[in-house]
Each structure stands twice: as structure tokens, then as C-alpha cells.
Fold these 2 entries.
Entry 1:
Amino acid sequence: MAGCEAKERKILVAVDEGEESMYALSWCLNNIVVSQNSKDTLILIYAKPTPSIYTAVDGTGYLFSPDTMSSMERYSNEVAECVMEKAKRLCKEDHNLDVKVETRVESGDPRDVICQAVEKFGVDLAVLGSHGYGLIKRTFLGSVSNHCAQTAKCPVLIVKRPKSDGPSK
Amino acid sequence: MAGCEAKERKILVAVDEGEESMYALSWCLNNIVVSQNSKDTLILIYAKPTPSIYTAVDGTGYLFSPDTMSSMERYSNEVAECVMEKAKRLCKEDHNLDVKVETRVESGDPRDVICQAVEKFGVDLAVLGSHGYGLIKRTFLGSVSNHCAQTAKCPVLIVKRPKSDGPSK
């Protein structure tokens, strides 16, 4: 296994709108996907809230109007697109890696979205920030990273952003 | 960061007498420390129970005799030595990596031992199996990997051994 032979691995990175997930992606690129000749495939996954989650957030017992739901859905799609663009830019420009990048936007609780994607795509390693993963964070009880570390059927790398806010290494 | 330039990283791997931690070490060697010219330093750490833990295990309210304590201590040292030998063999022979390996045996709760070592040695990545880390496992309440993922001041990789018991990749 020695040397720089390329191995075909599927590495899932869960991204969201927070800086921590971008730091986790950057750390992964620097420390796991280091070779320009890498045959790794990066699967960037973003979990967007389902309509039922918006309803839970309201908390008044009333449903949002169809108009409100529709604009929330539109906003959520725009956020997903923006996050994916930022993540892809990080891979291609900032790290100058010609790695294969796939993006997936799925609706649901990020814990389920991540664990299901691991099985669906036969992922070899899942990379997560230690916080975040929710447009509306308080709707997700419990820690996404803890849950995935125990449940996902592959090794899980949990990357914390240093408190100093220094550059990634 | 592209290419195979060697980076000087300190990678801590927590080992114990269980197969899961050896699988985690093997996965780390195959997927993180892949280069023969690596400048990585592997720090293999083993947490052995403290005398107070033996006492708690007795559970009768009586202390063990000094003779019993002494033979438990001796046994624990032998286990530590055996685990370290096995781990070093895995690095050098099975993976043919000329990586620098340091070994540390510390007394205490593995959660504290691991998190303290991360700070003490300026570790860049901590690698853990998702279970284990205790000669006498039931004395350690809560999950070592969960605790370290939240507390350790570096990224934490949690490696589960596949249920199929297949070879590591």
C-alpha cells in the first residue's frame, strides 16, 4: 500500500452554510485527498429541511401558508446551490485538485441523509464538521456527528474548527 | 498542497487489546499514512486502568489485597506491552511503512488519556476504533469515541470494524 498509488475511494463530505463544514472540507483536501493524481471521488452532500421541519419550527400549531412554504423552499434551494458552489470552488481553485466532485442535495434530517448516502453510494470515508448541518439548527435534536459516527457504515472523520480561527493546515 | 510532498503530521492512534483498534490502525495506515516517504509520526497510545479502577470493579466495598493489586498491575503491564508489539508489527511488517512510531502507555480513563495526549503532543489527527479502550470495559461509562470527538482539540477519525469481518482496505 506504500507509495502514491491512486486508490479509488469515495469520500463523502457533508456541507452546510456554516464555516465549520468548509473547514472540514478543506482539512480533508489537505490531509486525505492530497494527490493531484487521486482517483478519489468527493461526494458533497447537503441536507435541506423538509416541509415538515418548517412546520415544526413555526411551533404555533398552525401550518404555514402555501406561499410561505413555497418561498421557504425556494430560499432553501438557493442556499443549497450557494453552498455547493462555494464547496466546489474550494476543491478546484483553492486546492488546485483535479479530483472528481459530485454534489447531492437531499431533503431530510442530516443524520439520516448522511447515513443513507453512505450506504447508497458505498462511501469509504465520511467527513463532517462537529457542529452545524441544518438551515434551522434547533430543529435537529442531538448531535449529527455523534449519531453518524455510531451509525454510518464507514469510518467517520469529525473535524472541529480551531477556536483560534487560524488557517487550515 | 497537491502532489506527494511529505508533511510532518502527528497522528495519534489509540490501541487496546481489541481487534477493532487494530483495524482502526490498519485503516489509518492504508488511507492516511500511505507514503513510504511520509514524515508522519504515529503515536500509539494505550490507556491502562488505574488501581482505583480495579477497586471499583471489585464492587464488594473491600479493597483488593496488595498482592492482588500487584499482580493486576503486572498483568496490565504485560497486556500493554503485548498490544504495543502487535501494533508496531502491523506498522512495520504488514504495511511495510518506514513511518516513525512512538509508543506511550498511560494510566487512567482512556477518554482523559487520549484528550490529554492530543494537547501534550500537539497531535494533528486522532484515530480511534468506535468501541473498546478498556481492559475492564464496564468501568468506563459512556463512549470513548463520542467523548473524544467532542473534546479532543484536533480532528478525530472513528473507524468501525465492518461486521462482515472482511479484510481492511
Entry 2:
Amino acid sequence: MQNIQAVELAKAYRLLNHGPTTIVTSAHGGVSNVMAAAWAMPLDFDPPKVLLVIDSSTLTRELVEASGEFALNIPTRALAETTLAVGSSSGREGDKFAALDIATFPSEKIGAPLMSGCLAWLECKVIPELHNQQRYDLFIAEVVAAWADSAAFSAGRWHFPADDQRSLHYLSGGAFFATGEAFNVELKP
Amino acid sequence: MQNIQAVELAKAYRLLNHGPTTIVTSAHGGVSNVMAAAWAMPLDFDPPKVLLVIDSSTLTRELVEASGEFALNIPTRALAETTLAVGSSSGREGDKFAALDIATFPSEKIGAPLMSGCLAWLECKVIPELHNQQRYDLFIAEVVAAWADSAAFSAGRWHFPADDQRSLHYLSGGAFFATGEAFNVELKP
């Protein structure tokens, strides 16, 4: 069982600040879907906003535009194959949750399910910006709730408990990096 | 000496796809500046576009709006202190290149200087989107030239030659992650 704790909204950007690859979950009208997205990042601190690029051909795009909502799930290295798989097939071809044996649990403020086994979750409501959506496939959203597995993130800090529980950074093909060594630097006086 | 090679524009997104922290260089009217930016990511593949968030209070913002150009430089772990320092002071207080002993070399397609010792460089021209700039501090730009140190990136792949030559992922305060272990996964049949 994961010990899932709320993340203070003013610190929610720290879940994304290091540039991890995300998994996007969405739902509308009884249909839900899951896909991978490397192109997600913070846009503002408080209230927290995020940017997400969603290709116009995807089922996720249809569900996000219809519902005005999505969740960003931060997967672990243990979920790298699943991350590649949800990014390599369309929800129009069949239910990816069932096909890939992906367990979920309910979000609090939106309709999209959250993916079990991830490190953190950001529940997001789209701020409608039709020009960006239509011209650039770019979505701006406000983070309305954020959660993290306390084994990996607490008090505004990541502390990955094991190598297969580190976050992921996607390159291309099936190539990823794990999030590496943490270190601190100080300003010289 | 770094062996700097051109990166094919269709593969330039791979310089940013894993979410590294960047250093932004800019210039206009004889003034140049350098600052850190964790909030930069790809927006499109070919022609490549990027997103960059630039706070409205910064000298960089003024130079980018005036010139319509900026460069994204990808720093190494060896440059982590410099990355923190250029993100912690304003170019209005004095020339950060001189104060922090930052060497540069000329870009090819834009006026901003490129920072020596980095892993890769993206020369960018702003696509004017005033609503995004004014409301969200968000800039959309096309990548017009891209370069990489061939010791770290070639044939579309990263291969960091040493631990202090890995890219960086910023969290907050002086806390960073290094880019970690590379690995590949395959789709199950």
C-alpha cells in the first residue's frame, strides 16, 4: 500500500520542476484513457499552473477538451515499460487500463482516475486558451489538488526510496534516463 | 577545447526532451545577459519549437522582447554553482558574464552569445504571441540552429562522458539532480 499524502499547492511545482516524464489520465462521459507525455512542465507557482502538449490525434485530446480536466501522474522506473506502452497505442484501439493491467484510484477534484504505483499526482483543470490548443496543441491548466507517495516526496523534497522508484526522463524510442544523484550547491559570498 | 557539432533540427528536441535545466542567454543593443531557467521544454518536433517561461521583472525578458531572440544553453553538473548564481542575481546589478567569469562564443543565426563549457545550445527566434507573453510570461520560439559538444551528444543520443559532465535538473533552493542512468525498455509483443 502506498501512503499518499496531500502536497501543499504552493509546492506542487516541485513535483514537475526536475522535468520528469508524466502519464496523463483523462475521463469524460464514461470513457477514460491513459497516455504518456514528456512535454509537461510548471508554468506558475501559486496558484500552480502547468503546461501540457497533447497531440490533436489522440483520444486524450478529445477527453481533455470535453471534460476540461486531466491528471499528471509521475511514474517510477518500475513503470517504464508501462509508460512506453501507454505512449505507443491509442485508447481508440481498446481500453489501455485493462490491456496493460493498470490499477487506478479516484481523484478528489476532477473526474479522471489516478494511476496506482506512481510517485505523485497533479489534478488539473484546463484554463481555456483555444488559440494555443488549436495552433500549438498546447494546454494551460491550474493544479487544483496534488498528492505524493510519502515514501518518495514529503516536506517539499524528493527522496526516492529505491532505484526502481526513481522518476523517469524520456529521450526517444524506448530510451529513458532515471533521475540521478541529488546534490546541493551554495552561492559564493 | 570542445568539439562542437551541428545538431540536425529534426532531432533538436532531444536536447531538451529529458527535462534538463537550461541557461538562457540574450542580447540587444549592445547589452547581453544570462539567467537560469528550469521552465523550458520542447513544443514541436520539426520545425522544432520550444516553450520558455521568463519572469516579467528580469533583464532577460526585456532583451528577449526587444530582440525576438534567445539561446538555451544546457549546463553540466560542473556548472551547477554558476547555474544557481546566474539565477540568483539580476543583470541590472552588473554584468553577470564578467562577475561570474563566464566565457562565451558567438551564435550563428541570432545575436545572443552562447555559453562555453555547456553540453548543447539551441538558438531560438520568438514567435510573437503577446497574450501568452503578457498573461503567462510564456514565450514560444522556433529553434533555428542547434549545437552539441560531440563528447556528450551525437547521432541523436546523449552519452555523458563523465559524472561532472551530466546535465542538471533543478528542484529549488540550491537543490539539483544530475541526469541519472540511461536505460532502454521494449514494448512487449
